[in-house]
Amino acid sequence: MTATRRTLAAPDLAPLTRAALGPTRTLTAVTRLRGGTRKGVYRLTLDDGSTAVAYVWSADEDYWDAGPADPRDPFSHASGLDLFTAAHARLTAAGVRTPRLLHADPTHTHLPADAAIVEDLSGGTLEDLLARDPQAAPGALARMRVLLDTLHACTGPRLGKVAVVDNGGSSHGVSCEQRVLDGALRDLNRLVAREPRVAAAHTPLEETLRSLAAEVRPRTGRPTLIHGELGGDHVLLTADGDLALIDIEGLLYFDVEYEHVFLRRRFGPHYAALRAPGLDEHRLSLYRLAMHLSLVAGPLRLLDVGDFHDPDFLRGIAEHSLEQALIIAGCAS
Question: Which CATH class is domain 10-119?
Answer without folding.
Answer: alpha beta
